[in-house]
Structures are given as structure tokens and as C-alpha cells.
Amino acid sequence: MEGIADMGGTPGWGAVHPPRHDEPVFDEPWQGRAFALAILSGRVACGGANTDAFRHALERLDRAAYLDDGYFGRWLNGGELMLTDSAILAPGAIDARARNLRGEHVAEPPIPEPAVPDYTPTAEGSLRSVDTAPAFTVGRRVRARSMSVPGHTRLPGYVRGHTGIVEAVRPASVLPDTNAHFQGENPQHVYSVRFASRELWGADAEPFALTVELFESYLETTP
Hints:
The protein is an alpha+beta fold. It has helices at about 30-45, 50-60, 65-70, 70-85, 95-100, 175-180, 195-200; strands at about 140-145, 165-175, 190-195, 210-215, 220.
């Protein structure tokens, strides 16, 4: 889907700064707790680990929930959204509880009847086997499909409609577009596709090559 999460490649965000070599995993203790709570929330809300559903929750957050609360705040907000999606929590329950813990006296919404998806992965992780041969080979010129996706996808907006070269054929994997919505794993071949920066961002872009991992259904042949 086109949303705040698909900011990659958009102008106006300044230079990318790599992390320091001595950068800690968590700058503050609350970040580690937030990380753990987000993972636990996703498992409870889905009936099992579904990274694609969690990513879809993140991309549905509004601007404040996605940007203003920082990286680990975003994870907490995504976990809360998943819990409300599955009716583990009622909307507004966490805000009401937090206000009461601060000494306010507000009514907390009643606990709803859970509606956890009927979800069971066919195997651990995301790698799967498929019976068909890869549609594209190394060195093949391909184009990322120019398509608008209403739900979750791992096809970045900035590569859609652009042409690159297949660098490698990767193991088949669960398709995020359907798995995020509990519509089946639909495993596909995955390709490492190299794009020239000026193909993506025009003649004034700094020259470099960008490699993106793309599922087979995201690609089409070029003349």
C-alpha cells in the first residue's frame, strides 16, 4: 500500500547516516521492553508469528504514531493496533489505563470478545519450496511492475515501473502481500535486482547501484 511506511527513496529527508560502530542495541531500557512487547503482541494477535502482518500494522499508523514516537514507539503502536484488530484489546484501552495509572479517573472500555485469525504457518521462518522453475535468470533485464497495491506489499514505490538487472535468484519465500492478510502463504521465487540510481531518480542523482529483493509477481520482462 502507498502510505507513510513507503518513504524509501522519497526526497526531503536528508542524508542517510550509518549507525556508529559502538551504537548500543537499545539506547534506553524502555526500548528493549517495547521491542519485547511488540513481538509478544504480534504473536498473541495473530495466533503465531506473522512478520508480514506486523509490517502491515506499522504502515497503517498515522503520522504521529509512526514518526513522533520514534522507532521503538512505532513498534509499540503497531503492536497495539494488532491487538485491537484481533479484539484482544478494545480501542482506547491502553490510553485509558495509562491515564488511570497517572491518577486520573476515567472509564476503561470493556474487554471485547477476541477474534484472532485462524492462522498456522506451514513451517518455521519464511523460506519455502516451490515446484516451478524461476521465471527469470541471472543477467536478465526486468522491470518492476507499476501497480497500486491496496494492502501490504514489499514492492517499494520508488522502483515501480523501473528497469534493472537480475543479480541472483534467491530461495523461494512466503509472499508478504497475501500472508499479511492471512490469505495464504503463496510462496514465490525471490530475485536480487540491481537498479542504477539514475534509472530510479533521474540524471542528477549521485551515481551508484541499488540492489532490491523482489518477489516474482513484482516483475515483468522488458523488450
